[in-house]
Design a protein that fits this description.
By secondary structure, the protein is of the alpha/beta class. The chain contains 13 helices and 20 strands. The structure holds inosinic acid (IMP).
């Protein structure tokens, strides 16, 4: 399969969990390289639903090595809970899950700070998952964060945590929030540290040794291109590099060892949280929500929905270097008589063929649509390209062409078998 980076080409929730699971069959190692437990990757195997937040989706296949890379921010209590949950479902993690020594840690003060900053922002809030992701990456950039390597060193951890709690309690008090008890946080984190210690290693060395043995790696992206801290719709973004470059910095595998980039996108658009979404449409939101679709895997929030936005996905191809596309949730559009796709933005007489960086300009953008005839036939039973209705094939070919990458996978439902290789 060669080394493959998988990224979300929209605003997250593109159905990456399922595509990662499908591609994992041909990989030896699966690596998470950014984000934290703000992500929620849903995978169905038979009737069993798995929602993974930190552990790479590769864990659901036997004999795959899974790595949580240095670019991830880890809530140790959340990770222990996830490992225990997997174990209860009969999924093994011992000996096949590895955690980077240099990944940064998320603490309760990060979560509290996340929540307090959102309250302070009022109507300008970002709509974060409140998992403490922004403040944790903030500490990393400010060089004041604690890392996994500190967590597994008991005496150093105690000293560092004591300082951090003292300092952060002052900030929490200023926000009018409850200060944290050092003893409680320390006891819980020490227990989690003991549980996680057997998984902790130098994952950069592990990955390079694996490459010397010709092992193939899948880099599983979390969130999506327009939530990227540099290339997204700032400030309505997450705090990591969700685009292809993040796979290199978040794993220690250099760019020249990457062989291809797969971009995952829905046949329409969704977004959770605040921020502009030019092709947002009540028509498609009502349809999808009535079908019980488009509710967040991490927070359960109803996702905002819109028509397919080719301006955004074209830019995603550019920024990530997407070679191949996986288009998901095609069956969500089955009942529509007419399907729209946004091919440009307009503000007054100005036309944009790219996503403007100025958030105010972006929020004023009106979509320019082209229309496609709907296929009005169920697609969820299709297993081959030729079994899809001709109108569905035309639509998929058109949106891939507008995006500027080769259509490789079409997904017509959450199950592994509902996957068409084009
Ligand atoms: P944070 O990552 O919790 O700080 O949230 C920042 C923004 O990213 C918010 O709009 C979230 O809804 C969004 N976000 C974070 N993680 C995901 C995800 O996994 N899928 C979709 N949106 C996400």
């Amino acid at each position: 399969m060669a080394n493959t980076i998988l990224v979300g080409a929209q605003w997250g929730d593109e159905g990456k969990g399922k595509i990662i699971d499908v591609l994992t069959e041909r990989a030896d190692i699966v690596v998470r390289t950014q984000g934290g437990n703000n992500a929620g990757h849903t995978v169905f195997i038979g009737k069993q639903k798995y929602v993974l937040h930190l552990v790479p989706s590769g864990i659901l296949r036997k004999r795959k090595t899974c790595v949580i890379g240095n670019g991830v921010v880890i809530d140790p209590l959340g990770l222990v809970e996830e490992i225990d949950g997997l174990r209860k479902l009969g999924i093994k993690t011992d000996g096949n899950l590895f955690i980077s020594e240099t990944a940064h840690l998320v603490f309760p003060y990060h979560r509290e700070m996340d929540a307090q900053r959102e309250i302070l922002k009022g109507k300008n809030k970002i709509g974060t998952t409140k998992r403490g992701i922004g403040p944790a990456y903030g500490d990393k950039a400010a060089r004041t964060g604690l890392r996994v390597v500190d967590l597994v060193n008991s005496s150093r951890f105690e000293t560092l945590l004591r300082q951090k709690i003292k300092e952060n309690n002052e900030i929490l008090k200023a926000f009018g929030a409850q200060p944290l008890s050092f003893q409680n946080v320390h006891a819980a984190y020490r227990a989690a540290g003991d549980r996680l210690k057997p998984f902790v290693t130098n994952t950069v060395v592990l990955l390079h040794e694996a490459m010397q043995q010709q092992k193939e790696i899948l880099f599983e992206g979390a969130q999506g291109t327009f939530l990227d801290i540099d290339h997204g719709t700032y400030p309505f973004v997450t705090s990591s590099n969700t685009t292809a470059g993040g796979a290199c910095t978040g794993s220690g595998v250099p760019p020249h060892r990457m062989d291809r980039v797969v971009g995952v996108m829905k046949a329409y658009t969704t977004r959770v949280g605040e921020g502009p979404l030019p092709s947002e449409s009540a028509e498609i939101a009502d349809l999808l929500h009535a079908m019980g679709r488009e509710f967040g895997a991490t927070t359960g929030r109803a996702r905002r929905c819109g028509w397919f936005d080719a301006v955004a996905t074209r830019q995603a191809t550019m920024v990530n270097g997407i070679d191949e596309l996986a288009i998901t949730n095609i069956d969500g559009l089955d009942s529509l008589e007419t399907i729209k796709a946004c091919v440009g933005y307009r503000v007054g007489t100005t036309r944009y063929d790219y996503v403007p960086n100025d958030i105010e300009a972006l929020s004023k953008c009106q979509p320019v649509y082209v229309e496609f005839p709907g296929w009005q036939t169920a697609t969820d039973k299709a297993r081959r390209w030729k079994e899809l209705p001709a109108k569905a094939r035309s639509y998929l070919k058109a949106i891939a062409e507008l995006t500027g990458a080769r259509l490789a996978i079409a997904s017509v439902g959450p199950a592994r078998e509902q996957t068409i290789f084009v």
